[in-house]
């Protein structure tokens, strides 16, 4: 048996088990709170699922590439959401259907603001994600967009800076954890299969001298 591989695999298994323990709310938990609650207590709701029902959107203010190990795996789109209470919040999505919905909602919101419609002529949609701090570059674009709109706290607007990051899903998180957990499991399996083959070979030494 390759003892070194077995030890490394067991240590990796324990390590990933610890990661799963700390990510249990993301893997097994449901929605813990709404954005309004979580934004005020970000540390308490970190690594938990948060929801918000979006009814109006003021448009996309930033876009960036999503990379894993220096490989581009997708894009993240940042939107300025107009909340029920009239305040503004940032939200990030990566799915094509989410981006298409928010772009259409932006058009419907501006039709309402321009007086073309009496209400925002689109159904609301509930998004689920995690509350996080905005990346510095996205935050700069967020502040720039607020300034261009003339939206300031001095004018009585409530501006929220906590990001609702909807780029991850529970299914994706579970799939990633399962894929990573397979590495130590395969290592342990290889060790036991190799050990079984060696025992079988050592138990039949006469086979070594059989003619070919």
How widely separated are the two ends? Answer: 27 Å
Tally of strands: 7
- Could you give the order of the helices and strands? HHEHEEEEHEHEH
The outline comes out as elongated
Helix proportion of residues, in percent?
A: 40-55%
Low-confidence segments, ≥5 residues, pLDDT <50? Answer: 206-212
For the record, the CATH architecture of the domain at 31-169 stands as Beta Barrel
CATH class of the domain at 31-169: Mainly Beta
Biggest sheet, spatial arrangement of strands: 1-2-6-7-5-4-3
> Which topology of the domain at 31-169 does CATH recognise?
OB fold (Dihydrolipoamide Acetyltransferase, E2P)
Kindly describe this structure.
The protein is of the alpha/beta class. The protein has a domain at 31-169: OB fold (Dihydrolipoamide Acetyltransferase, E2P) (Beta Barrel), CATH 2.40.50. The protein is 46% helix and 24% strand. The protein is built from six helices and seven strands; from the N terminus they run H-H-E-H-E-E-E-E-H-E-H-E-H. It has helices at 3-22, 24-28, 35-40, 96-113, 136-149, 170-203; strands at 31-34, 49-54, 57-68, 71-82, 88-93, 125-132, 163-165. A seven-stranded mixed beta sheet has the order 1-2-6-7-5-4-3. Helix 3 (35-40) links the parallel strand 1 and strand 2. The model is unreliable at 206-212 (pLDDT under 50).
